[in-house]
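Structure ticket #2291
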Amino acid sequence: MEDRNKKAPTQLKVDLRRLCITHHNAQTIIGNIQLVGHLLSRELDLATKETVSFLHDIRSSLSLVMSNCEALISSSSGNDFSSKLHSSSQPLRNLYGSIGLLTEQLNLADIITNPQSITFGRRSQCSLHGFLFRIVKLFESRASEKRVWLQLGELKGEIFLSLYQSFQFVPLILLDNALKYCNPKSNVYIQISHAVGDLRITFTSYGEIVPDDFHEKIFERHVRGPNALSSQIQGSGLGLSIAKAVVEAHGYAIFYSSAPQSQQNFFTIVVPKGSFVKTGR
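Resolution: structure written out below.
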């Protein structure tokens, strides 16, 4: 185990150097980003403070790659960055999303080594739909590779939540898991629902369901359900425990449920009445 920790930074350094060298080729960079992402998912659960310190240094290299990517996007037609991104080529849009996703994966290291960082900083008001829309955009490339339709549902009116910065990791983790374990050519969607009381944010995917006796266990540290183990997909069993810790630090709740006959998996975040503001109808 100690040897693996020593090797991880060296391999990450090699792959980050390759990212910078091949900045002219979007498809090559995306492939290299995926390699780095795989290394992170294997190594973060074994991360020591020394390793995490090195990951902070990697962010500097990654920000340089992002700057080059943004410069390419800025040369596209459009009045602002959003319209220029929309008019850019698909490989360039995929590259932008892949870099953003890897950056967020690197930021997870802070919570793994220091769980108290979940509540660092002040909570700020943000539009729930706009917040989720940004996260969904990061996963469009991965969803396309698996031929999965990724959809964010609409809700009449606007919902505002008061969130710590760490809350961004919750949809990142839930969408990452959904795309890992869902059936190819299926749907993954996020639905926001509000009746009289609670607000519910539900992440739905189609694939092998989690057995009843693991519905709560999968939120424990280093626990993976039998469906995940049998899939031979690599994972640390840390993601859902982090998501639960972040959700509960906000005073919310999260639970898993399923519809076995249709092979639907549901991860639902419950925001209690009084913890959000709804405008419009």
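Closing remark: The chain has a mean pLDDT of 82.
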